[in-house]
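Rotation project, supervised by the postdoc (A.L.). Task for the rotation student: set up a whole-complex structure prediction and record inputs and outputs verbatim in this book. Inputs entered:
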Amino acid sequence: MSAGVRKAIVPVAGLGTRFLPATKATPKEMLPVVDKPAIQYVVEEAVRAGLDDVLFVTGRGKTSIEDHFDRQPEVEDKLTGDAGKADLLSRVQASTSLARIHFVRQGEARGLGHAVLQGAQHVGSEPFAVLLGDDLIDERDALLTEMVGVQQRLGGCVIALMEVPADQIHLYGCAAVESIGETDVVRVTGLVEKPPTDEAPSNLAVIGRYVLAPEIFDALRVTAPGRGGEIQLTDAIEALIDKAGEGGPVHGVVFRGRRYDTGDKADYLKSIVRIAADRSDLGPEFRDWLGEFVADRLPHGDPAEPITP
Ligand code: G1P
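Outputs recorded:
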């Protein structure tokens, strides 16, 4: 059995152009999903999977992420004296006590592989997780926990895969796989970053969760720029496929649960509606309203006049 998985790398240096102008002065990772920034859900997921150390790979304009995971004594002091605010106080403090949080700057935007490589010194020689901030996995679906378990059992690297429609595979890394006789775990035999539909080896997309062997850092150091002229994590993982015991093999966990791409506007809205509707405090009132709203608009109600974005 390989060493336990304790550390996570979370790349957050990306620009968030898809959400402009909202992301002009606010990092995309800080956009709220109900009442927490999207990035906090990602850290909470890592903690639920047993990780206790998170390294953010950040860039210019991202300091509010550091502030969010830091203490805020002025607000805490104010809430401490107010018995009725105890719940709010614990929610404010929660983000600061989730895990040990560290930051390193990427410096130049040279791709996801380059971002992960910035964590080499911090991670050292243990297997570790990578969580991409745009992907939210519903907390009832323990994907990362399962991936950590597979890595401990089979060694090497483990990536999360999800079936997507053929016309969307060009947006993702794509895996060729073979069965190992298990329902949701497959061996990865090939990986290609964002292939055109007619060159995709399958409809299995790489989604933003990885549990990687430390040998990935050496692979990244010699990975030439790939798709988009960037150093691709996908290419470095592909290089480990045949290296059993030296970073390989690579397995995929096929995820069939609820995933939201918060970098996509429609999916971002779905994540908010889903989480709000299921929350014990907001859910009852919100579900009632939602039911009325949907009955009013669909299928026979007149849609309201469109609002110009
Ligand atoms: C990155 C990876 C890609 C993966 C995707 C998942 O792409 O390079 O392989 O499928 O994340 O969200 P990005 O979406 O950052 O362009």
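Student's summary: The mean pLDDT is 93.
Supervisor addendum: The chain has two domains: 7-263, 264-299.
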